[in-house]
Design a protein that fits this description.
CATH class of chain B: Alpha Beta
Structural class of chain A: alpha+beta
Helix content of chain B: 25-40%
Number of helices of chain A: 5
Shape of chain A: globular
CATH architecture of chain A: 2-Layer Sandwich
Strand content of chain A: 25-35%
Order of helices and strands of chain A: EHHEEHHHEE
Radius of gyration of chain B: 13 Å
CATH architecture of chain B: 3-Layer(aba) Sandwich
Strand content of chain B: 15-25%
Number of domains of chain A: 1
Shape of chain B: globular
Number of strands of chain B: 6
Order of helices and strands of chain B: HEEHEHEHEHE
CATH superfamily of chain B: HprK N-terminal domain-like
CATH topology of chain A: Heat Shock Protein 90
Helix content of chain A: 25-40%
Number of helices of chain B: 5
Radius of gyration of chain A: 15 Å
CATH topology of chain B: Udp-n-acetylmuramoylalanyl-d-glutamate--2,6- Diaminopimelate Ligase, Chain: A, domain 1
Distance between the termini of chain A: 14 Å
CATH class of chain A: Alpha Beta
Number of strands of chain A: 5
Strand order of the largest sheet of chain A: 1-2-3-5-4
Largest sheet of chain A: 5 strands, antiparallel
CATH superfamily of chain A: Histidine kinase-like ATPase, C-terminal domain
Distance between the termini of chain B: 19 Å
Strand order of the largest sheet of chain B: 1-5-4-3-2-6
Largest sheet of chain B: 6 strands, mixed
Oligomer: heterodimer
Chain lengths: 144, 121
């Protein structure tokens, strides 16, 4: 890897459930190409996919960005949606405000944020009701 | 157990990826209609069994490096899901059995669950 961090960014279109996962898939391809170990690639993929899904379901679309640093991978998701009124509540497994339509598709079971946390080495949520949510998750890169 | 043997055990129809059936050795499986749970609990390399049919089923499997998906209860995946699976070389199997029966048969024949707390797995 070079000195400058590699950055990849995609826009998540509101309501485009069909396309969800495309950005995460591209991240995954990039990481594989960079020779990142497969367990780290998988963790980043799950984080990105869940974040992408959240930005679509709850945030009305947004931006998903991945930064490949020398010692860690950073995934950021930002949206201008309604924000999360109670982050502690949102972190509880099973708590969800997703619609029935999303649930029928197999998502919105209240596992997204806990799952991101489970796969990340660190996770920070910056949210404000009425303004939106920014999520940052890191996965430490260890040389194998 | 190679995927071809699984096809035979649950009398599945191979919708795509016939040529790949001998390439995957399956040790464990995860059966769910909740992709959020699959993302949380399925182990890489597992076989996914589900009754949902949308494209996100294939994407979820792709994210977790799950080699193949079995659509149970006679469900057929949507066209977009089939296309994506073909593109990423993921065999798609169709099974008329219920989730319970298909999982039961595989378990009986030695396919393991993804998490076995007693064994620390």
């Amino acid at each position: 890897m070079g000195q400058e961090p590699y950055v990849e960014e995609y826009t998540i279109q509101a309501g485009d459930f069909f396309a969800i996962g495309e950005a995460s898939t591209k991240f995954k391809s990039t990481l594989k190409m960079l020779g990142i170990p497969s367990d780290l690639v998988r963790r980043v993929s799950v984080i990105a996919y869940e974040a992408e899904m959240n930005a679509l379901i709850h945030g009305g679309g947004g931006v998903l960005r991945m930064t490949v640093n020398d010692d860690h991978l950073l995934i950021e998701a930002s949206d201008s949606g309604p924000g999360i009124p109670d982050v502690q509540m949102a972190m509880q497994e099973g708590f969800s405000t997703a619609t029935d339509e999303i649930r029928e598709l197999g998502f919105g079971a209240g596992m997204g944020l806990p799952n991101i946390q489970r796969n990340a080495d660190s996770m920070v949520i910056d949210t404000e009701v009425g303004k939106g949510t920014k999520l940052k998750a890191t996965v430490a890169y260890k040389q194998s | 157990m190679i995927l071809r043997d699984i096809v035979s055990l649950i009398r599945a129809e191979v919708l795509s990826g016939e040529e790949l059936l001998d390439s995957f050795d399956i040790e464990c499986a995860y059966g769910a209609d909740l992709m959020s749970d699959v993302l949380a609990f399925a182990r890489p390399g597992s076989l996914l069994l589900t009754g949902l049919t949308n494209i996100q089923i294939v994407r979820t499997a792709q994210m977790l490096d799950l080699p193949s998906v079995v659509f149970v209860r006679g469900k057929k995946p949507q066209e977009a899901a089939v296309k994506l699976a073909a593109q990423i070389k993921m065999p798609i199997l169709l099974c008329q059995m219920s989730m319970f029966e298909s999982c039961g048969i595989l378990f009986q024949k030695g396919i393991l669950p993804c998490h076995i707390p007693d064994r620390g797995v």
